[in-house]
């Protein structure tokens, strides 16, 4: 996929409008357009990295940063005391439908196990 065709790159660039719940130099956070839980937020890397499987080792701290952002958003969304789920899908069989690194924060209902 070309970066110019990536829906998340278009959101990051402001070409597709979306309410930004959080933004810093590395990430943005938005509500998922197809929520799978009452609260479903995406934390998206601003840099186009196709997948967790393609994350260069020198960029590994980005995953921790995304997790910290998700934790803060969980507090803001009042999920902290009840619990929530963080998910990073990797590759087609991992359920990744958009080839751009992103993390899902889901909550507001009991999360079942196994998830898939």
Helix and strand sequence: HEEEHEE
**CATH fold-level assignment:** HIT family, subunit A
Looking across the biggest beta sheet, what order are the strands in?
1-2-3-5-4
* Relevant CATH superfamily: HIT-like
Distance between the termini: 26 Å
Number of strands: 5
| 3D shape | globular
Number of helices: 2
Major sheet characteristics: 5 strands, antiparallel
What is the CATH top level name?
Alpha Beta
Q: What kind of oligomer do you see?
A: single chain
Strand content: 15-25%
Description of the molecule:
This protein has one domain: HIT-like (HIT family, subunit A, 2-Layer Sandwich). The two termini are 26 Å apart. Helix content is 20%, strand content 22%. A five-stranded antiparallel sheet has the order 1-2-3-5-4, covered by helices on one side. The radius of gyration is 14 Å and the shape is globular. With 116 residues, it is an alpha+beta fold. The model has no long low-confidence stretch (mean pLDDT 95).
In short:
This protein has helices at 7-13, 61-76, and strands at 20-23, 27-31, 39-45, 85-87, 102-107. The chain has 116 residues and is of the alpha+beta class.
List the helices and strands and how they pair.
Elements lengths: L6 H7 L6 E4 L3 E5 L7 E7 L15 H16 L8 E3 L14 E6 L9
Antiparallel strand pairs: 1-2, 2-3, 3-5, 4-5
């Amino acid at each position: 996929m070309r970066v110019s065709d990536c829906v998340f790159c278009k959101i990051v660039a402001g070409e597709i409008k979306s309410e930004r719940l959080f933004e810093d130099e590395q990430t943005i956070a938005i509500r998922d357009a197809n929520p799978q839980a009452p609260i479903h937020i995406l934390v998206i890397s601003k840099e186009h990295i196709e997948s967790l499987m393609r994350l260069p080792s020198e960029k590994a701290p980005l995953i921790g940063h995304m997790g910290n952002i998700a934790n803060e958003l969980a507090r803001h969304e009042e999920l902290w005391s009840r619990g929530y789920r963080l998910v990073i899908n990797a590759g087609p069989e991992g359920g990744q439908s958009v080839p751009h690194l992103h993390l899902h924060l889901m909550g507001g209902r009991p999360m079942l196990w196994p998830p898939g």
